[in-house]
């Protein structure tokens, strides 16, 4: 296997549950990556974002490093000051 997509397609073919887990991980990583990019674009530190959201900087750090998965409420609180919206599509 040469690429991540090759590996992912192989896993999805062999184990559909594991394939779904990989899809979820990629979706979460995309959300976090977008948040970090936007925070940097706005020139905000983790501490400043946390202050805007009324939460500790350590919580932002744990979310950005994927050590914890935020609740929907927390995610929406983080997205608002970044000027981001969560969109659900089918």
Descriptive overview:
This protein has 90 residues and is mainly α. It has one domain (4-82): Orthogonal Bundle (434 Repressor (Amino-terminal Domain)). It is 71% helix and 0% strand. The chain contains 5 helices and no strands.
Observed structural traits:
90 residues, mainly alpha, 434 Repressor (Amino-terminal Domain), 71% helix
Which helices and strands appear, and what pairs or packs with what?
Layout: H1 4-14, H2 16-41, H3 46-53, H4 57-64, H5 72-82
Unreliable parts: none
| Quaternary structure of the protein | single chain
The fold-level CATH name is 434 Repressor (Amino-terminal Domain)
Going by CATH, what is the homologous superfamily?
lambda repressor-like DNA-binding domains
Taking all Cα atoms into account, the compactness measure Rg is: 16 Å
Helical/strand content category: mainly alpha
* Terminal Cα span: 30 Å
Question: What number of domains?
Answer: 1
What is the mean pLDDT?
A: 92
Shape: elongated
Please give the count of helices. Answer: 5
> Tally of extended strands?
0
Fraction of residues in helix: over 70%
Q: Summarize the biggest pleated sheet.
A: none
Give a short synopsis of this structure.
The protein has one domain (4-82): lambda repressor-like DNA-binding domains (434 Repressor (Amino-terminal Domain), Orthogonal Bundle), CATH 1.10.260.
């Amino acid at each position: 296997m040469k690429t991540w997509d090759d590996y992912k397609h192989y896993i999805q073919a062999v184990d559909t549950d594991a394939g779904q887990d990989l899809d979820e991980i990629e979706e979460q990583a995309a959300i976090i990556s977008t948040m970090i990019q936007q925070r940097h674009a706005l020139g905000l530190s983790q501490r400043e974002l946390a202050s805007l959201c009324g939460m500790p900087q350590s919580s932002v750090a744990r979310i950005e490093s994927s050590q914890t998965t935020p609740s929907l409420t927390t995610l929406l609180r983080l997205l608002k000051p970044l000027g981001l919206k969560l969109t659900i599509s089918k």
